Input
Amino acid sequence: MNINPLESTAELIQASPSGAIASGGALPIALHEESTSEQLLLSIYNSVEASIFVVDVLENGDFRYVGLNPTHERWTGIRKDDLRGKTPEEVLSPVDAANVRQHYSECVRCSKTICYEQCLQFQGIPSWWKTTLTPLRNSNSRIYRLIGTSKNITAIKQAEAGGIDAQREELLKAIAEQIHSGVELQIIINQTVKRIRSFLESDRVIIYRFQVDWSGIIIAESTIVAGTSLLGTNIKDTCFSEKYIERYKRGGIQVLEDIYAAGLHPCQIDLLASFQVKANVVVPILLKQDLWGLLIVHHCRSPRQWQQTEIDLLKQIATQLGIAVQQTQLQQQIETLKAQFNSQMQLIFNYEAVVRRITEKIRDSLDETQVLQTVTQELAKVLKADSCQIEFYNNCCSVATVAYEYTNSKFPCQESSRQIADFPEIYQQLLQKEPLQFVQVVGVNPQAVMTLACPIFDAQKIWGNLWLTRQTQEAFAEFEIQLVQQIANECAIAICQARLYKAAQAQVKELEKLKHLKNDFLRTLSHELRTPITSISLAAQTLESVLQQEGVLEIELVPQLFGILENECERESKLINDLLTLTYLEADIEPMTLIAIDLQTWLPSIVEPYRERIYCQQQQLSLSIAKELPSLQIDITDLERIITELLNNACKYTPGGEAIAVSAYLKADTVCLSVSNTGVEIPSDELSRIFDPFYRIPKNDPWKYGGTGLGLALVKKMVKHLKATIDVESADNKTTFTIQF
Output
């Protein structure tokens, strides 16, 4: 249909509601059929500083341009003669044509005036337009024409983009910093969806994690949509076919400005509508070439025209989330490898412990039977062997006899012998001092077992062989063979030493006696030191009771003496306990019991009981615990003793009116605990000695109060026992003890 501008305008005037053509794009109000009015309207159409265009709606639903005013020609560079009768695809780029066609379809479908913003390219230059689109009806009430007025808002959008770009950079920076800091993946994705929803002002942002069967679960959600949360929802999209999977794997995205105008399959529309979605963007989260999940933004209030900058931002965030997932998986792999390494190291430690125990047994005992029987038992247990045997050659190495055996079999082989000549392929290698392993079939019910044999020899001769069997065909590992060979060498030493047993018997008994005395030392010391103090304390209490009955306690001096006696008994008892604790720590005979503690909850329970005491002494107490401290694997008994000793010191030596502070914080990757007090200062030349047992700072120093002299020495030993360090700083009338774990 060819219509000149005047005819188009006149028809619009007759069919439309009253309006005014102004800078914002409205249509004229007072319209008349008189020629003068038409000429006036045509004058406005040609001169108004707003872009006006006319689009015909064909009966088949297609769209063709009718005309445009001079302002539109000037702004876009398109002449009306080049536009008339053409479809959007013949005038615009494929992407722009699809976008404007979607808006035209929406206007026809809604049967009302719509307003929208869009970015279009004319002559290769992108520009932003705010458009009002009004439908016109014919006498049959069919919408046959659309009148559009547009205003160029490129300058406004560019100004907005400057602020938005800064916000976008801040958003990307915040996510990157979390990833770099090693924040837990779930925390990263939870905070990311919140940031995206706030930035895009959308209604819902979710992260959808794929399962093996390509169903999935929503693992993160930020929403303002009324109704049930989708978090944790398992979704099986029946329309999610292989082509979508391959498309997402290649980095393809889905951008829907209106789910009802996007040509979706009905099942997809139903699924999105069930979540109240009107428009959405779906961006894949890729792990290298694998499709891990989807980052999905929902707009539920109305259809939405997504901007390219928004889509690019979501792509960048999806890439960062892929990096976070990969980093988490790598960390999990590292933890797995670490666990495997620790497991292997534990095996090695167990093997080394066996060697150490056997070596100690050889050194501590010259009884050949005892040593070698221990060898077979320990070796069989640590290597999980079904049997372990030691056989000896006769003098001419023609017969081998099993002398010692540890076995789970009902048919032991001890004292059995075999001729060397009957097994030349085995003993030829063993007699050349080389270990040997092979599979052999044994038992009434034939069963294949793995057998390992290592020769026992020294510089003088070959004594025999150490045999192990396991009910498996898996070969012994190289380090297991090395362990057995090392044990075989220790056996050779034990056999040699057994010959000197009688001559060294007296010396061995003396060593056993010394060892026994050493083991009983701490137990005896505890009993011998505690008993007299307990007796003195009980005697003093009894004497005080008798004297009280006799009225002697009314003499002023007697209660003072008893007070001194009780205080000194208590002081001596504490000294003995501290001395025993210090002795145990130096002997390192008590293993640590490691427990994971949260300092946020544990530390206040230790510090708070001191608040009343500090208040009574007119001192001040403060407790500071940093947020997000990691849990601490520690022996809780030792740590509590350390904190209480330092707090007792601080309470004792802090003058009235001064402050005591306890702090827990993270320094680099190290957890730190500090106890400080003001009003006291230790001379710098004394700092290196305050952890020595029984050391006291000279009397002219403010730290001149009494005590056992073991408190700080115990703290130092317990800190070392916990594999930690302690430092002390004293300056500017303030002293601080800092423990680093």
Remarks:
- The radius of gyration is 45 Å.
- Confidence is low (pLDDT under 50) at residues 1-34.
- Residues 594-740 form a domain with the Heat Shock Protein 90 fold (CATH 3.30.565.10).
